[in-house]
UniProtKB/TrEMBL annotation:
The protein's name: Diaminopimelate decarboxylase
N6-(pyridoxal phosphate)lysine modification, residue list: 49
EC nos: 4.1.1.20
Annotated positions binding substrate: 298, 302, 329, 356
Entry annotated with the keyword Translocase: no
MF terms (GO), sorted A to Z: diaminopimelate decarboxylase activity; pyridoxal phosphate binding
Coiled-coil regions, chain positions: none
Upper lineage: Bacteria, Pseudomonadati, Bacteroidota, Flavobacteriia, Flavobacteriales
Family: Belongs to the Orn/Lys/Arg decarboxylase class-II family. LysA subfamily.
CDD domains, A to Z: PLPDE_III_DapDC
Domain Orn/DAP/Arg decarboxylase 2 C-terminal: 18-354
Amino acid sequence: MRDQDLIEVAREFGSPVYVYDSEKITQQYKRLTSAFASVPRLRINYAVKALSNLSILRLMNSLGSGLDTVSIQEVRLGLTAGFAAENIIFTPNGVSLEEIEEAASLGVQINIDNLSLLEQFGTKHPDIPVCIRINPHVMAGGNSNISVGHIDSKFGISIHQTPHLLRIIELTGMHVNGIHMHTGSDILDIEVFLHASEILFNTAKHFPDLDFIDFGSGFKVPYRENDIETNIEELGEKLSQRFKEFCQELGRDIQLAFEPGKFLVSQAGYFVAPVNVVKQTTSTVFASIDSGFNHLIRPMLYGSRHEIRNLSNPEGKPRFYSVVGYICETDTFGSNRRIPEISEGDLLCFDNAGAYCFTMASNYNSRYRPAEVLWHQGQAYLIRERENFDDLLRHQKDPQIDFAAQSAKKKASAKA
C-alpha cells in the first residue's frame, strides 16, 4: 500500500494505529505454497501468536491455511474464525493436562512436547492421536529468546530421550500420527534447517503410522532495503526433494506441514504514530512519539530493527534521530537513525509491524492499546477499536472497603 494510504488511515481512525495489507499477506502465502508445490500433500498452519485478530484469521482461512495454536484461547479464536477443528494443531508448552484435554475435546490435533504430559495423556486417552514435538538440539534463530531447538531449550522432547519416548508409547498403546520440530525464528542458513530436518526424518522412522511431519518455521524476512532473508525457493526445492524421497522410503505420501507466522504477516504490517516532541540534548536529537514499548516492544525485547520513515516529510533533509517513546523507562525504537527531518506532529511509520507487535502490546503505564485496521482491495476496514478509559476499568472490581475507617480503628487500638 502507498504511504498516502497510511496517512489517510491515520486521519480517519487516529494514531497510533496498526495497519495490515491483505494483498501482501496473500502474496507471501502463495510464495510459500509455490515453493513447495511439488509436494502432493502440503499444509500451511498459520501461527496465530504472530497476529491473532479475527479478520486476519478469516483471511488465512480463505487462503486455505490451517492454524498453529499455543493456547486454548487461540484454539477458540480459530474455531470462532471458522476454521475446521481438524485444520488446527495445538502446540502448547508447560500447560496443564486439563488444558490439553480441553483442546482435545474440541477435536483439534494435539501436539505434546514433554514426556510427563505424554504419559499422562496417553494413559487417559490412548485412542486420541497425538503429534510429538521433538527437540533436535540444533541452535537456530536470530536471538536467544527465539532460538528454541537447542539443548538448553524448554521446548520439545530431546532426541536423546527417544528410547523413553518409545517406551511410553508402547506401554500406553497411544497412537502417534505426527512429529514436529521448531528450531527458532529468523533462520538464514537453510543448511541448518535441512540438517535439523534430517534428524526429524531419522526420528520419524520409529513411528510407522505417521500421517504428517511438521517442520515448524522461523523463516527470516527482510527488515530493511537489501536485507538478507531466508531463501524460500531454494529451501522449497531441496526440502521437497528430500521429503519425497522419504515418502518413497515409507511407501506412501504423508503430509508436509509448516507453521509460519512472521513470514506471512510481518511485512504486511505498519505501525503509524505521531511525533509528540523533538528534543535536542547535548549529544542527541530525540524524536518522541505518542507511543512506547506498550505498543511495540520488539526493539527493546529482541533488539529487532524496524525501518522508521517520516510519512509527513519523506523528501526532507535527512538528519540523525533517536526515536523514543513516552514510557517511564528507556524505550528506544531506534538510535541515531537517518530520517528525513522530523517536526512535531509528523507521522512516523514503522515497517515490518505485522508480526509479534500488536499481539505483544500491553496497558503498561495505564496506556490504551491502539486500533487495528485492515487495508483490503483499496479500502480501510477497522478491525479493532482503540481502547478507552472504560476498557482499563472493565474487569476491575471495587469491594467497597472503607480503608480510612479501618486505618482509624487500627490507630485507636494502638493508642489504647
